[in-house]
Design brief:
About 5% of the residues lie in helices and about 60% in strands. The protein is an all-beta fold. It folds into 2 domains: about 90 residues, Immunoglobulin-like (Sandwich), CATH 2.60.40.10; about 575 residues, Beta Barrel (Maltoporin, Chain A). A hairpin with a 4-residue loop joins β16 and β17. The longest helix has 12 residues. The radius of gyration is 29 Å and the shape is globular. It is found in: Cell outer membrane. Pfam families: CarbopepD_reg_2, OMP_b-brl_3, Plug. InterPro entries: Beta-barrel_TonB_sf, CarboxyPept-like_regulatory, OMP_b-brl_3, Plug_dom, Plug_dom_sf.
Length: about 800
C-alpha cells in the first residue's frame, strides 16, 4: 500500500508546478524642463507618460518651482513622454525604461515657443518577470513556499533553483559550497563573514524574500565564487500600527529509519518543534519603527550515520554516529527610519540573537560482525552563541531622484561559548575528558556608496573598510588514559583588515545593455598562535587584487534576450577553517584547521538566454568556473594508527561547468507550473598535499571528474474556498566530494494552506520528505583506508501553523 502511495505522489509531481512570486521592476523617471533659448527652468509644466501604441495614460505630474519632475513606479518598456506648457510646443520624447536600474535621469528637456503638437511615436512594451531582466538575480517570496512554511531558512532554500544542501547543513549553489550569505544586504555573524553558518536555525517566518545573485556586480564584496544569497527580513512600512503574529508547531522522526547498533542510548523520536513569531510596525509622519521577534525550539535527530571503514591491513571497523540535538534560537530585531526631510533619511537597526545547542551523542565501534565492541564514545556538547549587531545608515537624496549618497556603519559582536564532555568507555577502563572553547568575534564595517542616474543608465561607486578580530581560547581537561591531544590547546588570535574601493557603470538602449565594474581589495590576515603548539606556528597572508565584472546583453526583441557575464571572485578561509584546535565530536575521525590555508581565486564566464511569453518564461544559462587553490578537506590516516584526520588544504586547480534551466508556465487560473534543472561537471586536477597534524603525512590524488546535478519540480494548486496546495519533488544526482562521492537522493514535500478571517488569518499544514526517503550515502577513499557511510538523519517533519495580520 505504501509503495502505491509513493507512485501516486510521484505521478502528481510531474503535473502542474508551483511558481515563486514574480518581482516586477519599477522605475522612477526624472528630469528638468527648460526654455530652449534662455535656458531658464519652466515651473509647473505638464508631464504625461503614455503607451506609444495605444496612447493610453500611464502616469502624470507637474514640474515643481525649479522645473524638476519625477514619475514613480513605471514598468519596464518603451514609452512616450509628453511635456507641455502654455505658449510652448508640446514635446514628445520616446523613453526606454530598462531593467538595469530603478532610477533614470532624462536630463534637461528644452521646450520651444509657439508650435503645433507633434505626432506620437508608436513603440511596443516589454514584459518583466521574477528572474530579473539582467538575468543576474532571482528573487523568491518565502510566503509562497507552503511545503516548507514553519521550517528554517535552510529548508526553504533547498527548493530554490540551482541550490542544494550538504550533509553538514551547508548550501551549494550550482555545485559549489562557496556561497556568500547576506542578511538585508550585509554580512553578519549569524550566517558567517567568510562562509555560511546557522541557516538551519533561522526561522523562515522572519523572512520576507530571498535573492540569488549568481553574477554580483563590483558593488558587492568579492568573496563567494558561486555567488551571493541575500536573506531579507520582514519590514512593514504601512501607515499606523500593524503587525503579524504566527505560531507553528510540528513533529519529526515519527518512524525510525534504521535501528541503533547494540548497547547505546535511544534515538530521538517524535521530536517537537515550536516557533512563535511576532512582527510589529508603527509609521506616523516622518518616523517608521519596526520590531521582529522569533523564538524557535526544536528537538532533532541531527545525525545518525552508519559507517564501515576498511583499512589496507584488512581490519574492518563498523561504527555509528548518533547525535540527539536540542536547539533554542531567539532573535529580536528592531529599528527606526527617520525621514528628516525630502532629502535626508537616517535608519538605525539593532539585532540580538541567542542560540543554545545541547547535543547528546553515542559513537560505538565494533568489529565486522558486531560480535566485539572495541569502544563506546559518548559526548555532551553544551554550546551557547550570542550575537549583537547595530547599524546606522545615513542617506542623502539629491533633487534628482535616484541620485544618492549613503554612509553606513555596522558593528557586530559574536560570542561562541562551547563545552564538550566525553565519556570514553573501553573494555578495560572508562575515561572522562572535556574541553572548553571561548571565542569573541568583533567586526566593524564602514561603507560609503554613491549612485547617480543617467539618461540611459547610471554610475555608482564607493568604498568599504573592515576590521575583524577573533581571539580564541581552548582548554583541555584530560581524564584517565585520555586520547585527547592535551598539547594542542592554548590560544589563537585572528585579525583581518580589508579596505576596498569599487566603481560601476550601466548603459542601456533599445538593443544593447552594458554593465562594467571593477572592485579593488587589499586583504591582510594575521593569525597568531600559542608559541608552544606542537604542530602549528603563527601564519598570515596578504594580497591586493582587482576583481572585475562585465555584463553585455543583446535584445533580440521584447521577448528574447541574450546576456554574457564575466567576473573574478575570491574565497578567503574563515577563521574556523584555519583554527588550530582539533575537534573531537568523533574521536576516530577528527577535524583540524590549517593556518597555512590560503584564498582560492575563481574566474567565471556565463552565457544566459531568456524568453518571455504571456503566462510564463524560459530561462537558461551556460556557465564555466576555473578555481585556483581549491579549498577542500583532506582525510589522512595517522601512521601506526586507525585515527583519521580531516584537514583543510589548497588542492590546486578545479573546474565547474554546467547548464541551468528554468521553465515557468501558468496553465490555468488555478494551476501554475515551474520546473528547474541544473546539470554540471565538477573536475579536480591531480594534486599532492601534506597534512601536518598530528605528524606530517603526504596525500596524493589523481584527477577526479563527475557529472552531477539536480532536478526540482513543484505543483501549486489555487483551489476554491481559500485553499492552496503545493507538492514539491527534488532529485539530487550523485556528486563529487573530497576524496569520494555522494550517492543520489530524492524527497517529496507537501503543503496545504487556507485563508480565513476575511484574509487576516491563515492556517497551514505541511510535511517535508513525506516518503522518508532522504538519506545521504558517501564513499571515501584515503591513504590506507576506505569508508562507506549512510546518514539516516531526521528529514521527515510534519508541521501545522496559524498566522494573523492586524
Amino acid at each position: 500500500m505504501m509503495q502505491r502511495i509513493k507512485h501516486i505522489l510521484i505521478l502528481f509531481l510531474f503535473l502542474p508546478f508551483w511558481g515563486w512570486a514574480q518581482q516586477t521592476n519599477k522605475v522612477t523617471l526624472s528630469g528638468t524642463i527648460k526654455d530652449s533659448k534662455t535656458k531658464t527652468t519652466i515651473p509647473f509644466g505638464n508631464v504625461q507618460l503614455k503607451t506609444s501604441r495605444e496612447g493610453a495614460f500611464i502616469a502624470g505630474t507637474v514640474s515643481d518651482g525649479n522645473g524638476r519632475f519625477s514619475l514613480t513606479d513605471i514598468n519596464s518598456g518603451n514609452h512616450l513622454l509628453a511635456i507641455s506648457y502654455i505658449g510652448y510646443k508640446t514635446k514628445h520624447l520616446p523613453v526606454l525604461v530598462g531593467s538595469l536600474t530603478t532610477f533614470l535621469d532624462l536630463g534637461h528637456i528644452e521646450l520651444e515657443e509657439d508650435a503645433n503638437n507633434l505626432n506620437e511615436i508608436k513603440i511596443s512594451g516589454q514584459q518583466t518577470s521574477g528572474i530579473g531582466n539582467k538575468m543576474d538575480k532571482k528573487t523568491f517570496s518565502v510566503a509562497d513556499n507552503i511545503s516548507q512554511e514553519g521550517g528554517s531558512v535552510l529548508q526553504v532554500m533547498k527548493n530554490l533553483p540551482g541550490v542544494s544542501t550538504t550533509q553538514d547543513g551547508k548550501l551549494e549553489l550550482r555545485g559549489s559550497d562557496k556561497v556568500s550569505i547576506l542578511i538585508d544586504g550585509k554580512q553578519t555573524a549569524i550566517t558567517g563573514f567568510a562562509g555560511q553558518t546557522g541557516l538551519d536555525n533561522i526561522p523562515a517566518s522572519a523572512i520576507e524574500k530571498i535573492e540569488i545573485i549568481n553574477n554580483p556586480s563590483a558593488k558587492f564584496d568579492a568573496n563567494g565564487n558561486a555567488g551571493i544569497i541575500n536573506i531579507i527580513y520582514k519590514k512593514n512600512k504601512q501607515d499606523g500600527f500593524n503587525g503579524k503574529a504566527t505560531l507553528t508547531s510540528g513533529l519529526g522522526a515519527l518512524w525510525q529509519k534504521k535501528e541503533n547498533l547494540p548497547g547505546i542510548r535511544p534515538q530521538y523520536q517524535n521530536t517537537p518543534k515550536i516557533n512563535p513569531s511576532l512582527s510589529l510596525n508603527y509609521r506616523k509622519n516622518k518616523i517608521n519603527t519596526f520590531f521582529q521577534g522569533d523564538w524557535l525550539y526544536t528537538q532533532t535527530l541531527n545525525r545518525n550515520e552508519f559507517a564501515e571503514r576498511t583499512y589496507d591491513t584488512g581490519e574492518i571497523i563498523r561504527q555509528q554516529v548518533k547525535r540527539n540535538r536540542i536547539t533554542t534560537f531567539a532573535t529580536a530585531k528592531t529599528g527606526m527610519d527617520w525621514n528628516i526631510d525630502d532629502y535626508n533619511t537616517v535608519t538605525v537597526t539593532g539585532l540580538f540573537n541567542r542560540e543554545k545547542i545541547i547535543d547528546r551523542g553515542d559513537i560505538p565501534y565494533f568489529n565486522h560482525d558486531l560480535s566485539v565492541r572495541s569502544r563506546l564514545w559518548q559526548f555532551l556538547e553544551d554550546e551557547v552563541k550570542y550575537t549583537a549587531s547595530a547599524s546606522a545608515i545615513y542617506q542623502h537624496n539629491f533633487k534628482q531622484p535616484g541620485h544618492t549618497v549613503n554612509a553606513s556603519f555596522n558593528y557586530t559582536f559574536h560570542r561562541e561559548d562551547e563545552k564538550y564532555f566525553f565519556t570514553n568507555i573501553m573494555p578495560a577502563y572508562t575515561g572522562e575528558d572535556s574541553f572548553k572553547l571561548l571565542s569573541d568575534e568583533q567586526v566593524a564595517d564602514l561603507n560609503v556608496d554613491y549612485v547617480r542616474p543617467l539618461k540611459h543608465g547610471k554610475i555608482e561607486g564607493g568604498l568599504k573598510f573592515r576590521r575583524r578580530t577573533i581571539p580564541v581560547n581552548m582548554q583541555f581537561f584530560p581524564g584517565l588514559n585520555s586520547p585527547i591531544d592535551i598539547n594542542a590547546g592554548g590560544w589563537a588570535d585572528y585579525r583581518e583588515t580589508i579596505p576596498a574601493i569599487y566603481g560601476n557603470y550601466v548603459y542601456e538602449n533599445n538593443q544593447f545593455e552594458l554593465e562594467a565594474g571593477l572592485r579593488a581589495e587589499y586583504v591582510k590576515v594575521d593569525y597568531k598562535v600559542n608559541p608552544n603548539h606542537n604542530t602549528y606556528k603563527s601564519e598570515g597572508y596578504d594580497y591586493a587584487r582587482p576583481f572585475p565584472n562585465l555584463r553585455l546583453a543583446y535584445k533580440l526583441n521584447d521577448q528574447h534576450k541574450i546576456s554574457i557575464f564575466y567576473n573574478r571572485r575570491v574565497d578567503r578561509p574563515n577563521e574556523v577553517d584555519i583554527r588550530i584546535f582539533p575537534k573531537y565530536d568523533e574521536p576516530e575521525v577528527i577535524k583540524v584547521g590549517n593556518p597555512a590555508l590560503r584564498p582560492q581565486f575563481t574566474s567565471s564566464l556565463e552565457l544566459g538566454y531568456k524568453n518571455n511569453w504571456g503566462k510564463g518564461y524560459f530561462y537558461t544559462a551556460f556557465y564555466h568556473r576555473i578555481t585556483d587553490g581549491t579549498i577542500t578537506r583532506i582525510a589522512t590516516q595517522a601512521p601506526a594508527s586507525t585515527l583519521i584526520y580531516n584537514v583543510f588544504q589548497n588542492a590546486g586547480r578545479s573546474y565547474n561547468s554546467g547548464i541551468e534551466l528554468i521553465v515557468k508556465q501558468d496553465l490555468a487560473g488555478w494551476i501554475s507550473v515551474n520546473a528547474n534543472a541544473n546539470v554540471y561537471q565538477n573536475t579536480i586536477n591531480a594534486f599532492q598535499i601534506e597534512n601536518k597534524y598530528p605528524v606530517p603525512v603526504i596525500y596524493t590524488s589523481d584527477r577526479e571528474q563527475l557529472i552531477s546535478g539536480n532536478f526540482k519540480i513543484n505543483s501549486m494548486f489555487h483551489l476554491s474556498n481559500g485553499f492552496e496546495a503545493q507538492l514539491t519533488g527534488i532529485y539530487l544526482a550523485p556528486d563529487l566530494i573530497p576524496q569520494g562521492r555522494v550517492n543520489a537522493r530524492y524527497s517529496v514535500d507537501l503543503g496545504i494552506k487556507k485563508t480565513i478571517q476575511k484574509g487576516s488569518g491563515e492556517l497551514f499544514l505541511n510535511a517535508t520528505d513525506l516518503l522518508n526517503t532522504l538519506n545521504i550515502q558517501r564513499d571515501i577513499t584515503g591513504n590506507g583506508f576506505r569508508m562507506r557511510s549512510t546518514d539516516y538523519y531526521e528529514t521527515q517533519v510534519f508541521r501545522i501553523g496559524y498566522s494573523f495580520k492586524f
